[in-house]
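Input record (one chain):
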Amino acid sequence: MIRSWVRGIYRLLISLQLAVVLLILLSLSLVVATTLESRYDTATAQYFVYRAPWFAGLLLGLGINILSVALSRWPWKRRQIPFLMAHLGILLVLSGSWITRVKGLDGMLRIQEKDQASIVEVDEPQIVLQGAKETRVIPLAWRPPFVLFRPIHLPNGLVVEEFLSRADPQFSFVNNTSEQARPALQLKFSTKRAMGGMPAMAASQSLWVWDGADEWRQSDAGPAKIQLGGARPTVPGPWIWMNFSEKSGLEFEATSLRQEVSRGRIPLSDLQRGGAILDPGWKAVQIEIQQFVSRAVPLVEYVPAKLQFGAKAPPSAIRIRAPRRADNQPGESLWLGMGDRAAFETGSEKIQITYGPKRYLLPFALRLEQFLLERYPGSMQPASFSSKISVDRPGESPLSTIISMNEPLEWKGFTFYQSSYEESPGRPTASIFSVNQDPGRPWKYLGSLILVLGIIFFYVARAQKSNKAPAQRRVGAEVAT
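The corresponding structure, as predicted from the sequence alone:
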């Protein structure tokens, strides 16, 4: 019975029917992957097809089928060389693809002007738990928004309760007694304008300003700058500068487009009551103070993003809950976006949690000397952009070169492509590179070459055999005569 089973499996592995079925399934898989990528994005196609275990199983099955067919011809003969070369080429291509999947690198490198960097971020989310004794790295595979997520239990009683594939942050400010607490205001801007005799159209905008960090101290409300605390602005208007003290309440100074200055003060009692109106003296503009927190710290929560698919979709976010407290009440929970970190008290130990992409440290560093940007005449639309970079070489002078969209840099087995850039007012421009390392590339190139040569030799041998057949028939006819 065992021999019968072995013979049956052997006949299946070397059968042409198995090869045809596998090739049809692979073709259908590529059709599905292409459809998913065009309708959604690359990450969705990778989740369902390219990185799925069943797709790897199909490729492995094809490799076993090809290897079995080649071994079934043993002992090999000279006339079988083209056949063996073709099969060897396919096996080398599959092996190179597997090596790339296991050991390859495909990530992003961000460098600001006049700065250097060597850390590549890979699009593979992970959770890092850092305690007093050990540090654990837990991969958290990305999944599309329509795939059901089940809670993940982490060490120390922590639980990942929710996962948002693409998440937008929602900020608010809550009362706090810590040293970092500073005043915060939520302002609502309302404007009314009439156009061409039509009724006035109303528009509104709500925003937060917080005197605890530079990135929160100033905000934009249309063309106007809004600032809470810090030094009084020196740029031309329009802008509103506010300063809070418990004695005076909220004092403000507003400068219009015509550089007209108006000042005012809102008592603390009016701020605490809510709904106070800040009048900058601008026509058709009303500013309402919706919320005021005298000692505030930021609180961030995440909601499903409006843009769920595509290269411009935001990254993911998770919500983690701490273990139950000593009084059996549920532990606190908080949101972590990509790159965020927090600390949890779990019993007698304090755990530092970081949620971010997987990182790879390059064996060298790249320095961005200058970012070059050309725009179309008369517009702000970029026409082309490139980066002048330098690479340190031990014992030699640094290598200087330019990376552009069509001219990548190949160095030490890594390829750097100019991908995009970031511009922020008051900050250096940052250049973003796609970094690729493909250790299986030589095997794929070699396999493709052997495969092509095998096909050529096959047709040459077939043509020679066809030419010999008429000559043999003529000789046979002469002998018969």
